[in-house]
Amino acid sequence: MTASESDSFTNQSLVALSNQFADAIEQVGQAIVAINAKQRCGASGVYWQDGIVVTVDQAVRREEDIPITLAEAQTVSATVVGRDSSTGLAVLRVPSLPAATLSLSNLSLRVGHLVLGAGRSSDGNLSASMGMISRLGESWQTWQGGQIDQWIRPHLLASHGIAGTALLDSQGALIGINITAPRHLTLTVPHTTVQRVVNQLLQTGRIARGYLGIGMQPVAIPARLSESLGLSQSEGVMILSVEANSPADEAGLLIGDVVVALDTQPITDVSDVRLMLNSDRIGQSLSVRVIRAGATVELTVTVGERGQS
């Protein structure tokens, strides 16, 4: 193959790839909407199933009469079905939403895979971005206790806001929904997690969360005390308040106790406690180890459900 033939082949390949990406974006366009429920900025959303749109919780300031912009700048109204602040998702009901199809990706993701972002601006225009998977990891929990099936961090070159946009594989199948994390980090909630959240919100209107009924703050444990108690940590969580008749109250936890372990897991920060209170823990008994009056005390607490007495 001559140099000119090689250049021609390369150009043809790039054109084919470009057309493939454009076709993929066009294919999903009807399933991508704009959410205009927040004055400061908008976000995108994804048509999930009949009459249901999924977007980011941060974009939805009101509960009803939420303007949704569809293709061709058509605007319809939505209401909130439920929110899950722990995963950053909100589910909206849009009775007049036209039918759209969006296939789910079964690609085994690898770092370096090319991906596409699809969103929609408030004026109805479809927006697209291209990038790659920059980092992958195992399942993880957000600081609020949300269960995410896989750590997916895309690197997208986006000129439009990324929140609520769809992350697609090169064939246009949905990998997940993009959210913005602290420090302007873009992460993707995989479609398996989105489906679980949608199912629970449609069924109950909320995501169940474990509850102890305590106010807390992290504190340092003096080195001598930690050593004398045989602890391997220099920090714990002090209980600042205990709600009457709460699981913590019934377990005998007191103001001033310093929690150092829950279910044998070391506790050094308030976020450690939150991570132990996912919905799977509701109704379960957890061992609690606290420092009280210079000694360790072992207690048992039964995790309640937030919002229920």
Question: If you had to describe this structure to a student in words, what would you say it looks like?
Answer:
This protein has helices spanning 3-28, 191-204, 223-228, 247-251, 270-275; strands spanning 32-35, 43-49, 52-56, 66-69, 75-84, 89-93, 114-120, 126-137, 140-141, 147-148, 151-157, 166-168, 174-181, 185-190, 210-211, 214-220, 235-242, 258-262, 265-266, 285-292, 295-302, 304-305. By secondary structure, the protein is α+β, with helices and mostly antiparallel strands. The protein has two domains: 1-207, Thrombin, subunit H, CATH 2.40.10; 210-305, Pdz3 Domain (Roll), CATH 2.30.42. The longest helix is centred in the N-terminal third of the chain and has 26 residues, at 3-28. The mean pLDDT is 90.
Please name the defining characteristics of this protein.
single chain, 309 residues, alpha+beta, Thrombin, subunit H, Pdz3 Domain, 2 domains, six-stranded antiparallel β-barrel, six-stranded antiparallel β-sheet, 18% helix, 40% strand, elongated
Quick summary of this structure?
Helix content is 18%, strand content 40%. It is of the alpha+beta class.
| Spatial strand sequence of the major β-sheet | 1-2-3-6-5-4
Number of helices: 5
- How large, in whole angstroms, is the Cα Rg? 24 Å
Number of domains: 2
Give a count of the beta strands, DSSP E runs of length 2 or more.
22
Question: Given the helix and strand composition, which structural class is it?
Answer: alpha+beta
Q: Class of the largest domain in CATH?
A: Mainly Beta
**Helicity range:** 10-25%
Major sheet: 6 strands, antiparallel, barrel
